[in-house]
Amino acid sequence: MNGEINPGNEIKIEMPPVSVFDVKPKQKKFPFDTIFTFVVRSSGLIIFLLTALVFVFIAVESFKVFGYLSPLDLIYSDRNGENIFEWYPTSNDPRFSLIPLLLGTFLTAIPATIISSFFGIGIGIFISEFAPRRIRNYLKQLIDLFASLPTVAVGFILLTVGVTFFDSVFDADNRLNAVLAAFGLSLIIIPQIASLTEEALRGIPDDIRMAAFSLGAGRWRTVKDIVFPAAISGISASVVLGFGRAVGDTMIVLMISGNAANLTLNPFSSVRTMTATIAAELGEVSTQTAHYHALFFIGLVLFILSILVNLIVKFLVQRIGFRNNGAGL
Amino acid sequence: MKRNKQVDNFFIGFFFLIFLVPALVYILFFLNILIEGVPVISWQYLTSSPSSDLADGGIGPVIVATLGTVVMMLVFVVPFGVMTALYLSEYSLNKKFDKFFIFLLYNLSGVPSVVFGIFGLGFFVLNMGSSLDNFFNTTLVFGKPSMLWASVTLALMLLPMVIISSYQSFRSVPYNLKETAYSLGANKLSVVWNVIIPQSRSGIFTGIILAVSRAIGETAPLLFLGCAFFLPSLPLFDLCVGGICLPLIDPTEQFMYLSYNIFILSTQSTGEVATLPYQYAGTLVLIFLTLFCNGTTIYLRQRYRNKVEMKGIL
């Protein structure tokens, strides 16, 4: 049916006489477009390879530590049947237990997270819910400004002024201790948590607040029972991010945590964190030794911690998106 | 109703107090730096070179070397950052691969800066540097901690931030603008060049300036990458092109960095009392530089937000 042609209605298509020379070939320009595409794609691939290399290189270098030590040596050293948890990589009888460093990291990071969650979430709620509308934006911008305070400046001020002050308030065992470092860390984490909390709260539509007001709830009850629970995913994401920053910060803990790798749970004693260990020892270590690779192993631990933090944050943020779509507000 | 009001007022007061305590700490923090630092700052301090005990003189070369390092970092960060963002948003090859790439970038942006320091020392200085030395038949030109590797390491650390920021602003260019350009016969390059990049200029700048601000404030990755605590003068060499000579900082030598200077002075200086005013002044300059950069990004973001709102109305 389609292929048949009625003999009566033959369609004749008049083709104009065309010679090859009549049609001007499309002017071939220099192919900038193709070249640019190639350049962009290859630079993307280069950067991809470089980022992947960071992961691979640190993993490979840190696993070389097992050529010198057994995995158990990184947890405790067995000396005459006694299990010693010590980090003394440069002594004649080197000991490479990571436990005191992990304890030091958590002894500074957990108090810092607690202090800065309390103040950060409080400031976020204050700015988003209670502050006068007119100055809300300015306060938010001011906080964003503080979030970028150089850590070395915070460490310096705490070292010159803060130490004496804290020494007179708390009767600590060591002048430089974990709690002091936690206070220093909170100075940079509070603005971060406050800013993210404010954003999470601002993401809750005003309709919900109005509905709560119209049902007779006061401002505080609206915040406590309606707005805060609705924004809890975003707020917990900000706290987790703050914890990640507390673990990863180097300069503050290097300057004011005392840098003694004690095996202790007392937050008022000097501690040494993983980041400070890398910062203090990598400069003087000779390459291709157990110590060098052990430092890379600490780097790998920090790396894995930061990836975990990232995954938790991603999960929490996805929950926000899911709920906002699901509830159909 | 009355009880409601009382409870509200109590909690508003309570949260104001929570707001006030850190605010007071920050105010004291800045007042301390300002009061101690401002009297030292003078034109002479900002331009002259330091004396050998660092209790006198200025920080001129330190600032120059810091800015030089940052500029060199930008040479790596800006083209690669923007082009990678373009690749992700416009020239992508495979969606699954891109998703993985973005995941990697997000993870990398959260990695502690000191980890980049060990990567920089282990990979750039000890592996790549010594291979370059072998290749060019030189001894210890590239295979030692230097300004070049410091800025490359900083660039690698800050690339994810620049890429993500530019990528997001490329993605937020309204689709109808691109379609209009294509319908007028523009090819992809001219759409990218004339529509996408101008539309997302402020997002790109925000990422770059934020990167500058973080690079200036960062110390940890530079600890093992050739920062010197005191150099009598910067290692200069003259770049001569056709008779015109330009003095440049030699990137394969040691350098000084403002934040590192403060760190060393405050932890390891011998004459602490004598250098204290200079530490305060250095801190003041450092804080001013970073806060200035950050303030610029906040201003840009605000302006951009207003522009987007305007676009919505029109």
User: What value does the Rg of chain A take, in angstroms?
Assistant: 31 Å
Number of E-type strands of chain A: 4
Structural class of chain A: mainly alpha
User: What's the structural domain tally of chain A?
Assistant: 2
Annotated CATH homologous superfamily of the largest domain in chain A: MetI-like
Which architecture name of chain B does CATH use?
Orthogonal Bundle
Proportion of helical residues of chain A: 55-70%
Summarize the amount of helix of chain B as a percent range.
over 70%
Poorly predicted runs of chain A: 325-329
Most strands sheet of chain B:
2 strands, antiparallel
Broad structural category of chain B: mainly alpha
- The quaternary organization reads as heterodimer
The CATH topology of the largest domain in chain A is what?
MetI-like fold
Envelope shape of chain A = flat
CATH architecture of the largest domain in chain A: Orthogonal Bundle
Main beta sheet strand tally, sense and closure of chain A: 2 strands, antiparallel
Mean pLDDT of chain B: 83
Q: Helix segment count of chain A?
A: 11
Could you give the order of the helices and strands of chain A?
Answer: HEEEEHHHHHHHHHH
Structure commentary:
The complex is a heterodimer of chains A (329) and B (314). Chain A starts with 31 loop residues before the first helix and ends with a helix. Chain A has 329 residues and is mainly alpha-helical. Chain A has eleven helices and four strands; from the N terminus they run αββββαααααααααα. A two-stranded antiparallel ribbon of chain A has the order 1-2. A two-stranded antiparallel sheet of chain A has the order 3-4. In chain A, helix 5 (178-202) packs antiparallel against helix 8. In chain A, a hairpin with a 2-residue loop joins strand 1 and strand 2. With 314 residues, chain B is mainly alpha-helical. Chain B has a single domain (22-313), classed as Orthogonal Bundle (MetI-like fold), CATH 1.10.3720.10. Chain B contains eleven helices and two strands. Chain B has helices at 2-37, 43-47, 60-89, 95-109, 113-136, 147-171, 175-183, 188-199, 201-217, 258-268, 272-313, and strands spanning 236-241, 244-249. A two-stranded antiparallel sheet of chain B has the order 1-2. In chain B, strand 1 and strand 2 (244-249) form a beta hairpin. In chain B, helix 9 runs antiparallel to helix 11 (272-313). Chain B starts with a helix and ends with a helix. The mean pLDDT of chain B is 83. The interface between A and B is large, with 82 and 84 residues.
